[in-house]
Specification:
The chain has 105 residues and is mainly β. Helices cover 0% and strands 46% of the residues. The chain has a domain of 63 residues: SH3 type barrels (Roll). A hairpin with a 4-residue loop joins strand 2 and strand 3. The protein is elongated and about 55 Å long. Bound molecules: zinc ion (ZN).
Length: 105
């Protein structure tokens, strides 16, 4: 999965298509990610322990990475992601459209 925490991503399919948000959490095992402001679901909750709130709670549900694309700041759109090996041996993600580095040093 090419999406990492704190990436800005755009949704390319589904109800929130074309919405942008920051990645709050990734789940590599399921290939999903929670994106800020995307894919809200309502949860009806009862207080289970002291201090819990009851009622209908809206929260973001994980989105499958195939429905997301990383946004390149330079292209200002969702782009395909490649990797490039740096001089120090580390790998950095790059925008396949303009070649811009997506990971900061
Ligand atoms: Zn780009």
């Amino acid at each position: 999965m090419k999406i990492k925490k704190n990436d800005t991503v755009v949704v390319v399919a589904g109800n929130d298509k074309s919405a942008r948000g920051r990645v709050k959490k990734v789940f590599p095992a399921t290939g999903r990610a929670i994106v800020e402001g995307v894919n809200f679901v309502k949860r009806h909750t009862k207080p289970r322990k002291q201090g819990d709130k009851s009622g209908i709670l809206e929260m973001e549900a994980p989105v499958h990475h195939s429905n997301l694309m990383v946004v390149c700041a330079k292209c200002d759109k969702g782009v395909r992601v490649g990797t490039r090996r740096l001089a120090d041996g580390h790998r950095a993600r790059v925008c396949k459209s303009c070649g811009e580095m997506l990971d900061k040093a």
